Amino acid sequence: MAERITFPSSSGPALAGLIDMPEGDVRGWGVFAHGFTLGKDCPAASRICKQLAAEGIGMLRFDNIGLGQSEGDWGDGSFSHKVADTVRAVEYMNDSGREVHLLVGHSFGGAAVIAAAHDCPTVAAVASIGAPFQPAHVERAYDALVKRIESDGEATFRIGGKALTLRRHFIEDVRAADLRERIKTLRRALLVMHSPTDNTVGIANASEIFRAARHPRSFVSLEGADHLLTEKNQAARAARIISAWADPYL
Q1: What is the torsional sign of CA 196, 248, 96, 51?
Q2: What is the DSSP string of 116-172?
Q3: What single Pfam family name could you report for this chain, choosing any that match (predicted)?
Q4: Fewer Cβ neighbours under 10 Å: the N or C end of the chain?
């Protein structure tokens, strides 16, 4: 069972979201942040949130600006926008009487939830899956375009069958984002999940995040998983681990 909602982004355009509702007793509520250009309906987001809902944790997943059913131009966004919109998602849930205690983020979204937690007083636990230690890691996805963007201000970026506009302000913003201090001062329980065979965001990123974090911190190796958790059991397994780990914080 899912509830379709919209809420205003930090920059104005409405964002489309989906709340995967628990069918039985509600253990708690959370917000999920998807990867770089993936959207709320990508396999990782959908399967993890549905499994968490089956475990009694209702989850809001949403499309970032210009993706999926959300309004706006993706090219107007940035890492800072993604963080701020994650905060907006938590505020939407809290205002509707579903107080959020858990943030879950995949890949680029994993970095975003770590940063966003600082502005979410109700959040007690954060789980990252395949997250980069520094948001600028995402530059590897468009490194061939960097010089053109720096000189022309923007360039068409093709990824996953989508043609998106990548602008200079995104590059400048993501380079300026420093996650190290955000991790050190998180003051929330942190679960770092990563596959040792992740060829998109290497396992060294998880080591850096874990070393920078303070207790309570946990690490789980997603043995055999790829970065996108494309096989169904991979995402479901990750969700079951998150569910058990998050129990004291819900």
Answers
A1: positive
A2: HGGG-TT--EEEEES--SSGGGGGGGSGGGHHHHHHHSEEEEEETTEEEEEEHHHHH
A3: Hydrolase_4
A4: N
pTM here is 0.95
How confident is residue 99, by pLDDT bands cut at 50, 70 and 90? very high
* Distance, CA of 157 to CA of 164 (rounded, Å): 5
DSSP character for 213?
A: -
Q: What is the mean pLDDT of the chain?
A: 94
CA distance 18 to 45: 11
Q: What is the pLDDT of residues 79-93, one digit of tens each?
A: 999 999 999 999 999
State pLDDT tens for residues 127-145: 999 999 998 888 887 777 8
φ and ψ at residue 132, rounded to 5 degrees: -80, 150
State the average pLDDT over residues 42-63: 97
Q: Which amino acid is at 124?
A: A
Q: Which CATH number fits domain 2-139+178-249: 3.30.43.10, 3.40.50.2300, 3.40.50.720, 3.40.50.1820?
A: 3.40.50.1820
Q: Span 17-45, mean pLDDT?
A: 96
Q: How many CB atoms are closer than 10 A to CB 26?
A: 14
39 residue type, one letter: G
Alpha-carbon distance of 210 to 226, in angstroms, equals 20
